[in-house]
Amino acid sequence: MTARLSRVRTDYRELKVCFMVNRNLIRGLDLTEDEWQVELDSALEGVPAEEIAWTTQEMELNKIVEGRVLRVEGDVVLVDVGYKSEGIIFRSEWEEGEALPEPGAKVKVLIEDVEDIHGLVDDSRGMITLSKRKAEKIEAWLKVMETVHEGDIVTGVATKKIKGGLLVDIGVNVFLPASQVDVRRPADIGDYLGRTIQCLVLKIDEARRNIVVSRRALIEAERAEKKAQLLAELEVGQRRKGIVKNIAEFGAFVDLGGIDGLLHITDMSWGRINHPSEMVSIDQEIEVQILHIDHEKEKIALGLKQRTPSPWETVEQKYTVGARVKGKVVNVMTYGVFVKLEEGIEGLVHISEMSWTRRISHPSELVQPEDEIEVVVLGINKEKQEISLGMKQTQENPWDRVAERYPIDSVVKGTVRNLTNYGAFIEIEEGIDGLLHVSDMSWTRKISHPNEMVEKGQVLECRVLSVDQERRRIALGLKQMADDPWATDIPSKYQPGQIVQGPVTKITNFGVFVGLENGLEGLLHISELADHKVEDPEEVVKVGEVIEVKVLRVDPDERKIGLSRKRVEWAEEEVAAAEASAGSTGGSRPSIPPTELKGGVGGDAGPLFKLEPAEKPAESAESENP
User: Fold this and answer.
1) For the whole model, what pTM was predicted?
2) pLDDT(3) > 80
């Protein structure tokens, strides 16, 4: 029995060695797995347990043990870890260029896997899989855990950029999220690789062996302490050096050494700047002046331009009202242009001060940015830091000589520029307009609107009637280009007693207007419409109807013609008798009614002439109202 056990032990040990090199050898045995177990149990029957303890010894997985290097074979290193079978470590666990251990060298390893001998699984790694690298990491982790706790400050080197942040080696790799790298998240956290940084331990997860750290929290804590100290030291008017940390459209944030102050774009330069980047850059060290401190909100306003005197302090001495100066156009707006006279001094040329005569819709019609122009100082408001400038004042005002150039009664030619209800504006030259009033368009025609006589864009010749140089007004006349027909043609052409024809142009409650020629109208008073009394003229005549009338009166002074329809058939003797009997009784024809006789160009501006009423006898009054 003893000899058999010895043989089994020897065979088993040889088999274990072969199994480590190549488990496929087991498959070459004649025995099956079950037969092999039965044979082994039978061979060990009656043997004291202490003699065969190796057969029941259990190995503890994930345990770090110290082993002795046996040899290096191919891609594995064989290590004796105190068990009956050796363990293997893959050569890849040694860094490239790192020397492999010599046989006999001691090495700490982690037991990763133990093969079940009964399983006979095909695995070239052998029976015990070891890890030198994991053992080192676990020992490092345990060492760190002995000294590092949440809230501690640790120092390490940023070794790798991963998704979401950085790995920092503090003995073990800890995670630094990208949002915790700095107070303001950097554009590229990769810039921190290789840098030694201090961080605050935020969270330790022992189960997952994970530590999260924050550099930002440490910086903020330090800044909070410095901020409180700095706020107590700062005073308005002080000058301090700082580092530009951020640039925005409205200004730049400057780190004063624990607290950020805002340097607004308007406090960067006395002159005009379009963007803060024209004055400062990120990480630039600048000297600023403290303008305002809000201790409650912990806000500080900074100034850069305040380090030098304001050019507005001496502006009144340098730029007197009426002086001609040159400047550069820096901005063009709808209402005017801003002209830079010197650094920090700009003035406004309002659109109304750009030209004496030209009608300007937008200042860009005359100037463009960067143009060098000459201007005249019109006014200075030092408190508001405003200067009013003028461009047209550098040229002669054409209205100063308009009376000389366009004397009264001279004939001018112009273009109808605009029409209004009361007349037409005639452009004589650029910027010089004259007004042609409706009353000066025709001698005879009654005009309700200028478009009855002229149209926009039409070229006309007119006569200058008056010039008001101070108020910049010129009165023009169109009818004055010809002789007044009321002084020549009309009195000779239309005589009292003359029979004429014309259309009814207008009907009013006091009579009818009859067109004679070329807009000339006469008034047919309601009392002269018919022999009987007329209450409504429209009962007798209609607009457009051509009627025959007799001229009663022609008044050149009042420019009115009185007409009669009922007297058309009267003989001269009857007319004379009617007029003679105006103040007496009797007569076969009714007398002229005691009323006002009106006429003219279609208006109701007053009586043509007036007949004084006379007392009528009772019978005469009765005969008028049969």
Assistant:
1) 0.42
2) no
